[in-house]
Design goal:
This protein is α+β, with helices and mostly antiparallel strands. The longest helix has 22 residues. The structure holds zinc ion (ZN) (2 copies). The site of one zinc ion has 4 residues, from strand 17.
């Protein structure tokens, strides 16, 4: 059972280790209204850590659903200037961002996906030049999850509400490394070190291509950009502040060459994209682009993702996650990318992370594209790792080195 004390520890963890709030730094929290009690704990911790001000951006699934239902496409495509100005003001003040996710999976299942796409497109287009702030890690950001009854009932549909909630809550706290009597910050420091070691090893190999195969039929070659950097276990801002963007995190990730992905890949877990759960899908790539695909459920939502913009049908991330990761060991399908992506090797459609390319953060847009980095207004992870996933690394001279066997790192 999750005690009040554990919620306190989680709040402290995300403030001190997640975003690592600095003295006099503004803090912005994105959260659902049903998490207000926990949010207040986080706000208090942030002030105690020296936050200049803490601003909470509240959201609610029911209100969002009503907006899609009742607003015209014209209204949905209008993003007021004040929204831009507000975010810009936060960035100019050097704010760090905490997101607390607890959405009910598939919350937008009954909403017209065209309307979701229109609203998203308008939002990302308006905010485009502000997106670098977090994509480039110019300031700290961190995402954690919080259990809710609605979410738990999706994960454990056969259990009674209370039992389902406790099971989900136990799992979330366990994989976030918060227990009744541990020191979560110390555990995270040790974990970050181990992740960084895996990333260092991958960097030493300097692979040209990764070859993925699995029992689902995946047979995919992913070229990496030249001068790529594998990253794992936390990030550092230009000002030198270390932070953990995702809690949990079990991945080391890198940048695929935009035009260098070939073969077929099968999803190994459902994907909640904009509140729609896409299931059992596959993608066929040619020279980096998805040329054919299908899904057993919510194919229309996959259509919207792939046609969102030019970059959303190319890859921006390749990530290695051991099958034995604690998230996967929990045996739970969370229907939430923060958790599910840390249970399995994954790829992301859309924008690449500049930190995965040497000098990437400082590069001009043109130079960055020339290196083969993908750009898009989307970045959507989907899971491909399985019990029998194998990954071979292929070096420039053709030498093949086993990286993954039976779903886990060889080294
Ligand atoms: Zn990832
Ligand atoms: Zn990602």
């Amino acid at each position: 059972m999750v005690s009040e004390k554990m919620y306190d520890k989680l709040a402290e963890l995300v403030v001190k280790k997640g975003v690592n709030v600095q003295k006099d730094q503004p803090v912005v929290i994105n959260a659902n209204i049903h998490d207000a009690a926990f949010v207040k704990k986080v706000v208090k911790c942030a002030y105690e850590a020296g936050a200049r001000y803490v601003s909470v951006e509240w959201k609610d699934d029911d209100l969002a659903r009503m907006a899609y239902q009742y607003q015209t496409e014209e209204v949905l495509s209008e993003v007021p200037q004040w929204k831009y100005d507000k975010t810009k003001y936060q960035h100019d003040g050097g704010a760090c961002y905490i997101s607390i996710t607890s959405d009910k999976p598939g919350a937008m299942a009954d909403v017209d996906s065209e309307k979701i796409k229109i609203a998203n497109m308008a939002y990302y287009t308006k905010m485009k030049d502000l997106m670098n702030y977090l994509m480039n890690n110019e300031s700290q950001w961190s995402v954690i999850g919080l259990p809710t009854v609605e979410w738990a009932k999706t994960v454990f549909p056969d259990l009674e509400e209370e039992e389902a909630f406790e099971k989900l809550a136990d799992a979330i706290f366990a994989v976030t490394r918060v227990t009744e009597d541990n020191d979560p910050i110390a555990e995270w420091e040790a974990h970050d070190k181990e992740m960084a070691m895996h990333a260092d090893k991958m960097n030493e190999f300097c692979f040209k291509t990764l070859h993925f195969t699995s029992e689902l039929g995946t047979d995919l070659y992913v070229d990496l950009v030249k001068d790529h950097i594998w990253v794992g276990g936390g990030c550092t801002t230009p000002a030198g502040v270390f932070f953990d963007p995702n809690m949990p995190t079990e991945e080391v990730f890198c940048m695929p060459l935009k035009t260098g992905v070939n073969g077929i890949v099968y999803s190994s877990k459902p994907l909640d994209y904009n509140g729609k759960v896409i299931e059992d899908f596959w993608l066929r790539f040619e020279n980096g682009k998805v040329v054919d695909y299908d899904a057993k459920k919510e194919k229309e939502s996959l259509d919207k993702l792939l046609s969102f913009d030019e970059g959303s049908s190319h890859l921006g991330e390749v990530a290695l996650v051991p099958y034995d990761s604690p998230v996967n060991q929990s045996g739970i399908l969370f229907f939430n990318t923060l958790y599910d992506e840390n249970a399995a090797c994954h790829l992301a459609l859309g924008r690449a992370y500049p930190e995965n390319l040497k000098g990437g953060v400082e590069m001009s847009k043109e130079e960055y594209a020339k290196h083969g980095a993908n750009d898009s207004m989307q970045h959507v992870d989907f899971m491909i790792g399985t019990r029998e996933t194998s990954v071979d690394g292929i070096r420039e001279d053709g030498e093949v080195i086993p990286v993954f066997r039976n779903g886990n790192f060889v080294f």
